[in-house]
């Protein structure tokens, strides 16, 4: 039976309209919102008072592709260290803008350490813990005053683990007076959204320009995050920071973050993202940056590095050769990208296929810029290599991995050099 197909479109929805917020350090400008690409950010987990350790981790995160890096500013020692961290980064040639993460005592730290306030490119304020009772409004105002004084943008970041209890009680009272009260879950959503938007409006009343404000409503449940951001996106035009807070460790954290953020990004919601992974002991903090990149690239929203297409393996591929080659070439590409992205414009669009047997190997390899089809169990010990869909050569012997790496390098030189 023939089906009369209409035009079938693909791709994410149009991005939700949002203001543009500029996060600046010297000549480096990162734009969040508007028509800018979705920005990737991360956060250090070093003791901020340890200047060298923190600067080294920031450099690693920036080199991995983090376009903003947030650091904890939780006490006088941390605040005093921020200018020295910025100076150390300058010495290392790292111009990534720094975001100061403040809770409880941010008003005091920004006032007592003006060099810290100046060195940071953006502040993160949690309206749920800036103060209690009458102090809350005063201390929030003091932080906004510092942002205005030093011309810094602010992320007003609400978290359901530290929600303003006075506001929550007010909304619960209002809800109880409704003819048809909302569920407890909906009340919580309403409190998160109200806290963020009311705090943003208050910041504007205090003199902070609307194009200096970014909002977030962090929760740890996938469906909760989707529901909250769908709703807040309808009620304001501030840029939105996406992230599943306390996402977890390993595959659980990656899957949960990917599930939540992919739905929202597909719907055009979200202007900057952070993947909050709990690292394994001794694990690489940069993993959260790599996951963020892979989400955006897999969805076709941005390109960061060449994609490696590899089959999962089956009974036809009892040898581990193709797995080792896929891992080898993927690691090689990631290691080269900090240099390649400057020297070879467009290289991040390259596709490399590493296939394990004759079933889909040649066909998939032909669709990639460079593809290799390794011999499966019982097949002839030869690996045809395809370049832009045409069989170019056949590799044999002990040095297939090294030879294939050289083929990839030659392709980059010949196809992406500025003079090519």
TrEMBL record:
Task: Give the metabolic or biological pathway.
Answer: Isoprenoid biosynthesis; isopentenyl diphosphate biosynthesis via DXP pathway; isopentenyl diphosphate from 1-deoxy-D-xylulose 5-phosphate: step 5/6
Reactions listed under catalytic activity: (2E)-4-hydroxy-3-methylbut-2-enyl diphosphate + oxidized [flavodoxin] + H2O + 2 H(+) = 2-C-methyl-D-erythritol 2,4-cyclic diphosphate + reduced [flavodoxin]
The EC number(s) this enzyme carries: 1.17.7.3
> Per the database record, which ranges form the IspG C-terminal domain?
308-408
**Cofactor, how bound (note):** Binds 1 [4Fe-4S] cluster.
Give the family from UniProt: Belongs to the IspG family.
Name of the molecule in the record? 4-hydroxy-3-methylbut-2-en-1-yl diphosphate synthase (flavodoxin)
